[in-house]
Amino acid sequence: MRSEELGETLLSKRLALPIFASDPLSSVAYATQEILLVLTLGGLAYLHFTPWIAAAVVALMTVVVLSYRQVVNAYPSGGGSYEVASTNLGPSAGLVVAASLLVDYVMTVAVSVASGVDNIISAVPRMAEHRVLTALVFVALLTAMNLRGVRESGRTFAAPTYLFVGGVLIMVGTGLFRYLIGDAPVAESAAFGVRPEEGDANLTGLAMVMLVLRAFSSGCTALTGVEAISNGVPAFRKPKSKNAATTLAAMGIIAVTMFVGVTTLALITKVHITENACRLTGLGGDCAGYTQRTVIAQVASAVFGGNSVGFFFIQAATALVLILAANTAYNGFPLLTSILAQHRYLPRQLHNRGDRLAFSNGILALAIVAGLLLWGFKADVTSLIHLYILGVFTSFTLSQTGMVRHWNRELRTETDLAARRRHQLARAINATGAVVTGLVLVIVLATKFTQGAWLAVLAAALLWLMMRAIRRHYDLTAAELAVTDAQSELAPPSRVFAIVLVSTVHKPTLRALAYARAFRPHQLEALTVAVDPEGLANLERQWQEFDIQVPLKVLNSPYREITRPVVEYVRSIRRAGPRDVVAVFIPEYVLGHWWENLLHNQSALWLKSRLLFTPGVMVTSVPWQLDSSAHADRPAVRAPGSVRRGEPVPPSTPARKPVAHGSSDDK
């Protein structure tokens, strides 16, 4: 796609909802389950806390959605939490948010895909032995779709998301109707008892509070991905902020409705689920071989029947939307890394758009890291979930704190009374959001840190340090490359000393000599290293035979080294004339097959790598194309986006002056 076609990839609200909100919408498939898994650690006695925990999650989601509606209106450029924190709390706070979100996006892909595979296994238990392979295949498919571009992936993913929402709402409506007419559905696990974990049978006081808080923190997975819309405002059609705020509100209403409905049906149908099936009593068989169905699978089976069309529809839609929920991260992660790369906190290649105007390098980076996580944790949701949601609440807390500062700054200059009232209301909403999400962050850290969340904290900390180091490198490089006196930089060298490296007299050697002569250097000589007396004698004989009018300089090498004598000789010329420039010409073969490179050019590559570190030395490769290179079919193979710059400049917008930083391979 041409750069001018970027506007054609902008999204309507109908497409933006499944693209940016598939993660929070799909999380209802496992948020209720995570609450029940924690509460059943103490047996069935603590399930009566479920409605209260669900109510707290709903209240939290309401506050967060309202808070982010303020963000999309105040900061429509797409930086989201990162931009809010950087602008109002400083660059370091912004990097904390960025690092936390990057970790959370990776976890979103891993958890969503693993959870989707779990639901496939609930319908087809034979797939359990292929869990990891299935998860990796889905990651590859998602990657391929997103490399096609945002709009194309949106069209692909829209139908499954809407089918899932419709299916869950129909299931909730049917289940509640049956309950109201006295035909309450019953889950397959309702008759099972649950044996408490050792030490969790009779919890009182602080221990019971910690169990409830842990269940609440697990239920907060329902909020993952809420911030994605605030990061993706530029992808909306105009008016961007209004459309993003409307989509955010629609996402909140639908997610809350489905979460409350699934949780209510789980309690009505008496779903009993544990992390370890052997803690279920009344199985009447080998517990080790018993596969528990997910909560949503048990609810669908109870409402529609175990082998009904409705059950398999819900399972298929749930599995598909959970896998596609990773698409939220596939849109958020590349966009955030692009912004960070533009701000010089990540490699500049992450700011490049690929063939389909997608941030291809970011998409590939996300897929690789998420795939490694799925492989390392064997695509197990229970293991991965402990690393989840920490990053999202860090970004929630800091962004809402930043918004409070934003409104304080606005209020200091605003004189219109109506506008001041709007700002004060917005500040109150964001302050409430900051306090509530801050408390949840503390709860999540306290209840999940020792269970695996420390890995997420460590990863975010290492990312923060890495981004600081990258920015420091770019800043130092920019300062070093900045022009202070153009005339002195443009001053020609006193003399140009040209050296052509030769080993024998053949066509590449003669071409290199001719090319060096064309530069009209002050002094030109051919240079060879004598490691074989017979070879040297043959070279000198050919030199005289062909009457080559270029002095041949011979360097003796009693220890058969080639690189060191050449480098030392070049350095000696530089020491003799510090204002001179030494131009080294190296003949090289251009080959058609990869294996031929193993047979040629090895000495030249090693020499170039050493000479490039010598100041005042220019190294020029003089290519000679062998016949194999002419017949080889060599398409333009490249990493997606690696040979392009970042944001395309619209035709009506004057191009910005490029910043002098980075190496030549950034260009």
Structural class: alpha/beta
Query: Could you tell me the strand content as a percent range?
Result: 5-15%
What is the CA-CA span between the terminal residues? Answer: 20 Å
User: Roughly how much helix do the residues carry, as a percent range?
Assistant: 55-70%
Major sheet: size, sense and barrel closure?
5 strands, parallel
Structural summary, described in words:
This protein has 667 residues and is an alpha/beta fold. 60% of the residues lie in helices and 6% in strands. It has 23 helices and 7 strands. The protein has helices at residues 13-26, 28-39, 50-74, 80-89, 91-123, 131-147, 150-180, 205-219, 228-231, 240-268, 295-304, 309-342, 360-376, 381-385, 390-413, 417-448, 453-481, 486-490, 507-518, 533-545, 563-576, 602-611, 627-631; strands spanning 193-194, 280-281, 496-501, 523-530, 552-556, 581-590, 617-625. It is elongated, with a radius of gyration of 32 Å. The two termini are 20 Å apart. The model is unreliable at 648-667 (pLDDT under 50).
